[in-house]
Design brief:
single chain; four-stranded parallel β-sheet; RNA-binding
Length: 830
RNA sequence: GCCCUCGUAGCCCAAUGGCAGAGGCAGAGGACUUAAAAUCCUCCAAGUGUGGGUUCGACCCCCACCGAGGGCACCA
């Protein structure tokens, strides 16, 4: 027995600490959630919780997510499915490296220590994971397949290196993918991101933009709309046209992208991104070259955050050069400005101030002409200052005059294409995924740079390309990868020609690891390949994915991308990795997110000691809909303790023997049981876990009453009810459920006994109360058979004394009857 | 500025267009107890953010507004 006397539940309840210790070894031994048994004929389901970063022990957020994932996984096990519910660690990344620098130890040591702590906590938290399949991404046996994946990408032209102005986090001293920059700040440390010109590795996710967008139709209704919207916004597809403009004094024309080719006749000037090469070229040798250079310096100094402010006044420099509008030969003055982005489209635009607000703002600031070419019926933009973006008949537009927008676009696109001056095109906001990182604790990029052969992939039989030992390396962030200092590691002979060459010293973004880890679980013990296609195709796609909304774009978009690449390689047979997605809410305290600095941190370990594992799990799941945030101040773990004790006490009251024939039991209680089982199952399948728990609470209350003042403890219905309660509770409160099951005279595991079978005939109530309304207002209630017909109910309603009285002198215009629930009598005069 | 979601007892939350309350927390009273705790029983409370509309009937569907949260926001 426990000697801990700080707990508040010792009184009439069971000893939680003792029960927890009692069952863990039993479960270890029975391994109820092992999913790899070869003779297992059960249908398959794959339930996956996003794997954690091992930054310390588990916290309340983990506790909520894993409690929810567990309800789903355990439910499908009870329903007779062979459930794959694995767990692993997203073990590469900066926190380990930063901790290692601080303490002067190997990041691996810190990482593996934390993994051990988390794993032990997950066991004590009774997570239904299949531990046979676990892995850590920092293990060479995992990351060698990261390297394999990289080489597959490289060989297909989907991994490439280019020089570009990249996002740079000055604090972490590494580059970031676009997805890792949130509102101009580093997603990880909130430091303002700067730009740096670097040659880096990219994955060509833009090749998959259309499929990433279009395949979302498969996810509609099964993923939160919010996430789908965020991904759509992120990909940002637009349709329009690419149009060639000649530049005076330049041989080559310049292509611009526009979504409104119908407004070509309304172009009154031309703008190039000030930080583009084109701008520099056009400015060169002109009288304004110096002015341009000064402007460029000024805008380069401005941070991304400044640039993001939309109400910033427009600025720019007239380059004293001209572009020729291809449809009417007009000379358009060319300006350089920072309101045009160098890396979207071609970095050059035609400006149509009448119908584009940004162009209008610029025109007004620079005193440039405004020409209306779409008759929208709104006020003249040059007067109102508001560009008119709507549809209408084209004017001042030559052959387009009189046409509506869509027709004009089709016409002009065809004409441009015919004349070789342009054609319809699409553009995306999505950029290629920058995967190089200048840090130590990640997967080495398996490329050798050779002066004669260029970029050469490390031969597959030489994988894993292991990280050099951390000992002796300076891991401090300094803007270049620490791997560069590992001379013996860096200097190799070229795999192709054998001449001296150098390894790539960057490591991969850790999102590469998580972009395919879910494929590894079905065959994680196979060390000859990344995954066995037959196993992956048998288990995947993931039936239910559970994790935080923070990965709405990053991890989920990358995973979808890699899945499609592997599909194209014929290695897997599905397009989308995650069929259903649940984003659990956050756990807050007193109205704000928990944090040490706020002083409102609730320690999971403390809560577990005070209330027990089951009560914490129950509290988190019962607190509300899973996707809602939970305020720990609003939930009552001690209330959960009380409820669990109440349920547990029932199991000790039952005086019948196991195996008794339920059909002889009290019908009223049996009906309550079958309704609860039916409704709770439906609620779980609809992810309304809080409602499922309410149904179990109801049944506990009904059973208490039945035992105390109804059919009594020996009635078979009482046993049926309490056994059903134990089984349903096994999804949420596994210790209590197992303890109840044992007290009911059974052997473990309650987790495997199967969801109680619902007898449909017991779902029909004996008698119901039907409501009689007059003009929608309730006048009377009558007890009726659940099988009553509309006609019978209407007759009884109209014959009821109260109704007869109420209808005196009134004209009945209509009677609406919905047996067995309601009769509504519509009268015209009272 | 645009888009999405949500507003139900003191609080957290339920309710296929059909009796607004399932469940819990908090509160009140009672039983048991020498007393307290625990347990058991009973009770209490909103007319669904506001204003319109559709309907025999609206928390639910439609429109507008108010409030909260989230996403997007020089992407041509």
């Amino acid at each position: 027995m426990s000697t801990d006397n700080t707990r508040d539940f010792v009184h009439e309840g069971y000893d939680v600490a003792y029960v927890q210790e009692k069952w863990l070894p039993v479960w270890d031994n029975l391994a109820p959630f092992k999913s790899g048994r070869p003779d297992d004929n059960r249908p398959k389901k794959y339930v996956l919780d996003m794997f954690p970063y091992p930054s310390g022990d588990l916290h309340m957020g983990h506790a909520e997510a894993y409690a929810l994932g567990d309800v789903i996984a355990r439910y499908w096990v009870q329903r007779g499915f062979n459930v794959l519910h694995p767990m692993g660690w997203d073990a590469f990344g900066l926190p380990a490296e930063n901790a290692a620098i601080k303490r002067g130890i190997d990041p691996a040591v810190w990482t593996y220590e934390n993994i051990a702590v988390q794993r032990a906590s997950m066991r004590r938290y009774a997570c239904s994971f299949d531990w046979d399949r676990t892995f850590n991404t920092c293990d060479p046996e995992f990351y060698r397949w990261n390297q394999w994946l990289f080489i597959q990408m490289f060989e297909r032209g989907l991994a490439y290196r280019k020089a570009s102005n990249v996002n740079w986090c000055p604090k972490d001293q590494t580059v970031l993918a676009n997805e890792q920059v949130v509102a101009g700040l580093c997603e990880r440390c909130d430091t303002p991101v700067t730009k740096k010109k670097l040659t880096q590795w990219y994955f060509k996710i833009t090749d998959y933009a259309d499929r990433l967008l279009d395949d979302m139709s498969q996810l509609e209704g099964n993923w939160p709309d919010k996430v789908l919207t965020m991904q759509r916004n992120w990909i940002g597809r637009s349709t329009g046209a690419n149009v060639l403009f000649q530049i005076e004094g330049r041989d080559e024309p310049v292509t611009i992208y526009t979504t409104r080719p119908d407004t070509l006749y309304g172009a009154t000037f031309f703008v190039v991104a000030a930080d583009s090469e084109l701008a520099a070229e056009l400015a060169k040798g002109t009288a304004v070259e110096k002015q341009f250079a000064e402007y460029l310096e000024k805008i380069k100094a401005a941070s991304d955050i400044d640039r993001l402010a939309t109400d910033r006044p427009k600025s720019g420099v007239f380059l004293e050069r001209y572009a020729i509008n291809p449809v009417n030969g007009e000379k358009l003055p060319i300006w350089a400005s920072d309101y045009v982005l160098a890396d979207y489209g071609t970095g050059a635009i035609m400006a149509v101030p009448a119908h584009d607000q940004r162009d209008l703002d610029f025109a007004r600031a620079m005193n440039l002409p405004v020409r209306v070419v779409v008759e929208t019926g709104e006020e003249d933009p040059s007067v109102s200052g508001i560009a008119t973006a709507g549809d209408g008949a084209l004017i001042n537009s030559g052959p387009l005059n009189g046409k509506p927008k869509d027709e004009a676009i089709a016409f002009i696109n065809a004409q441009l294409e015919r004349d070789g001056l342009g054609k319809a095109g699409r553009n995306y906001r999505l950029r290629d995924w920058l995967i190089s990182r200048q840090r130590y604790w990640g997967t080495p990029i398996p490329i050798v740079h050779c002066e004669s052969c260029g970029e050469v992939a490390v031969p597959l039989d030489q994988l894993p390309l292991k990280l050099p030992e951390a000992a002796g390396l300076d891991l401090k962030p300094k803007g270049t990868s620490p791997l560069g200092a590992a001379t013996d590691w860096v200097n190799v002979s070229c795999p192709k020609c054998g001449k001296p060459a150098k390894r790539d010293t960057d490591t991969m973004d850790t999102f590469v690891d998580s972009s395919w880890y879910f494929l590894r679980f079905p065959s994680s013990t196979d060390h000859t390949q990344a995954f066995r296609s037959e196993d992956v195709n048998a288990w995947l796609p993931v039936d239910q994915y559970v994790g935080g909304i923070t990965h709405a774009i990053l991890h989920l978009l990358y995973s979808r991308f890699v899945t499609k690449v592997l599909r194209d390689m014929d290695m897997i047979s599905f397009d989308e990795p995650f069929m259903r997605l649940l984003n659990q809410g956050m756990v807050a305290m007193d109205g704000s997110a928990m944090s040490k600095s706020r002083g409102n941190l609730v320690k999971l370990s403390d809560e577990l000691v005070t209330h027990g594992v089951d009560a914490v799990r129950l509290s988190l799941v019962f607190a509300g809909p899973p996707e809602d945030d939970i305020d720990w101040a609003d939930v009552s773990p001690s209330g959960s303790v009380k409820f669990l004790n109440r349920a547990w006490r029932l199991s000790g009251d039952i005086s019948s023997a196991p195996g008794i024939d339920y059909s002889l039991g009290d019908v009223t209680l049996r009906k309550a049981t079958h309704k609860a089982v039916n409704d709770a199952g439906f609620a779980v399948e609809s992810m309304r876990f809080n409602v499922a728990i309410a149904r179990v609470m109801e049944l506990v209350n009904a059973t208490r009453k039945a035992i105390d003042s109804g059919c009594g403890p020996s009635d078979p219905a009482a046993r049926e009810a309490v056994e059903a309660i134990a089984i349903m509770l096994s999804l949420i409160a596994p210790f209590t459920a197992e303890e109840m099951w044992e007290r009911l005279g059974h052997k473990p595991c309650v987790a495997l006994v199967g969801w109680p079978k619902v007898d449909e005939s017991l779902l029909i109530a004996d008698a119901l109360v039907a409501v009689i309304q007059i003009n929608g207002k309730i006048k009377e209630r009558i007890e009726v058979s659940p099988l009553i017909s509309d006609d019978q109910l209407e007759i009884s309603a109209l014959a009821h004394p109260t109704i007869v009285e109420a209808l005196k002198g009134a004209t009945v215009t209509k009677v609406v009857t919905r047996a067995p629930k309601i009769v509504n009598i519509v009268i015209s005069n009272p």
